[in-house]
Amino acid sequence: MTIKLQRLPFLVQEAIMKNMECDSIVMLSFCSSRMKTMIRASRLNLSMMLYRTYNSTTELVLQNSNGDGIHAYIMFTVAHLDDDFEILKLNNFEYCISAYLKMVLYSKSKFSRNYFLLHFHNHVLELFKTSPEIFHETGSNVDLATIKVFENTTQLRLEDRNSDYVEIVNSDFIEQLFSKCENLEGAIVEPIVDDEMSENSKLTTAKNLYFEHAVEQVEIIACHFKGHHAVFEDSECGNRTVEKIIRQWIANEAFQELKSMKIKQEVEGVFSPQFFHHYIQSERWDPARRPEHYENKTKIMDYEFESFECADFVDIQRKSDGKWASFKVTTDCFKFCVWD
């Protein structure tokens, strides 16, 4: 026997919906305006919305409040809507949904993809009590004009989607893409940037940054980074770059917000640990001054920053405020952390 959800007592409705997956909640909301109102009254939680943009499709991944239950919608344009599907409307947009494939389809002949995405995005936000974190991923072969980065998006990843070789992009693409995110709390760059970046790059303003193939760009971006945490992999820089970072921190000329930095060289043998022992005045670890372990729980999407074991780090002090930091240089890696 079928029991209509709307005929059940409200507390029963609420209990049922709180045990439903978030994608099912969204699907249910399209049944009627009354159903949408009932869902909103249940004050459900949504923790994350992740957009993945491709040239012809956009994928929306939803995650519920307990950190699991990840489900995706794949949205793409079509010249016309198939008669086999029930045609629905959202703010005068015609679309249809395949429950089996979790697909949202809409008419290319009448509406732009980004305009429809905006209405679909707002529709999802209206259903849930909490404001979710909003992330975005895209690739270097995607037309920038097709990329819609929504307001309140805080983390943005430029993916390397080629499995055979590392993709290459130019700095203009980087700046145009990451400038779409006004409040850039987290940035991930996976391809190689093949021309010189500016010291005023949007990446220098990111709160947290992971640069997978920094190469020569580390000279500019690391030395002008204004955020909290940064990692530069596959880097190409010398002792003087790291020395500049350390000295500017000590003099309080830059890096006032810095909490940790890691520069990993592309090859071994580039850094000289003895150079820093000779030219940078530092002190050995004193357990009375700071702990042995530097814990870092910062994440950008699924990338987790590294915590440091600092017993063999040396310590430096910023004279202006007395703050301490620690660093370690090996032949291929520089690690730096600031103590609260």
From TrEMBL:
Residues 2-54 form the F-box domain. PROSITE patterns: FBOX. InterPro entries: F-box_dom (IPR001810). PANTHER family: F-BOX ASSOCIATED DOMAIN-CONTAINING PROTEIN-RELATED, F-BOX-CONTAINING HYPOTHETICAL PROTEIN C.ELEGANS. This is F-box domain-containing protein. It comes from Caenorhabditis brenneri (Nematode worm).
